[in-house]
Amino acid sequence: MSEIKYIKLSEYARKNSFTYKTAYCHWKDGIINGKQLKTGTILINDESTFDDKDIKVAIYSRVSSSENKDNLEKQNERLRSYANAKGYKIYKEVKEIGSGLSDNRKKLYDLLNDNEIDIIIIEHKDRFSRFGLNYIKLLLEKQNRKLEIINEANNDREDLMQDFVSIITSFCARLYGQRRNKRKTEKLIEELKNDKNI
């Protein structure tokens, strides 16, 4: 069994024509194997060469309404720039218009269902989902896949307000629907009682 040969991170960067920063990102994200000495020096397994053909990256951008289409394009452009800066080769670009509360977004569903994709990059966590993001991340990790969030801070007040209106509308519809259903049930019970008395 041959001994593992390690090289410095800077040498790995040179070998693969990367900047040191990109090489560091690859190590930090677990794309390449290595170890860090107590001195802080990062050593990379010499056989751990980056092959962008092996890693399939998708970028996902979303806005709540078609009125924000310009923002959708700008968001997509920022994601593309980020992926390029990290040395990723983009396999798929997904742009979607729909509420962050909706669990019925076809493009997101197709993206999550594509097992070819190793990393999904989003700008903010609320671009992906308003709720349940940690569950999605956990499931992706179980599949050896990753959700990479550029900025963990929440953003876009207008989009948040639209989602808030969607929540209120949804709850109102459910509330009034329950009242109608209750009246229908009461009417049915009354009719059954009347039939029994005949």
Q: What is this structure, in a nutshell?
A:
This protein has 198 residues and is an alpha/beta fold. The protein is 48% helix and 19% strand.
Tell me the strand order in the biggest sheet: 5-4-6-7
Question: What is the element string, with H for helices and E for strands?
Answer: EHHEEEHEHEHHEH
CATH class designation of the domain at 57-151: Alpha Beta
Q: Report the mean per-residue pLDDT as an integer.
A: 79
**Quick one: how many beta strands?**
7
Poorly predicted regions are none
Structural class assignment: alpha/beta
What name does the CATH topology of the domain at 57-151 carry? Rossmann fold
Biggest beta sheet attributes: 4 strands, parallel
* Separate helix tally: 7
What is the helix content?
A: 40-55%
Strand content: 15-25%
Q: Could you say which overall geometry the principal axes of the C-alpha atoms support?
A: elongated
CATH architecture call of the domain at 57-151: 3-Layer(aba) Sandwich
Distance between the termini: 91 Å
- For this entry, what is the oligomeric state of its chains? single chain
Rg calculated over all Cα atoms: 25 Å
CATH homologous superfamily title of the domain at 57-151: Resolvase, N-terminal catalytic domain
Short descriptors:
198 residues, alpha/beta, Rossmann fold, four-stranded parallel β-sheet, 7 helices
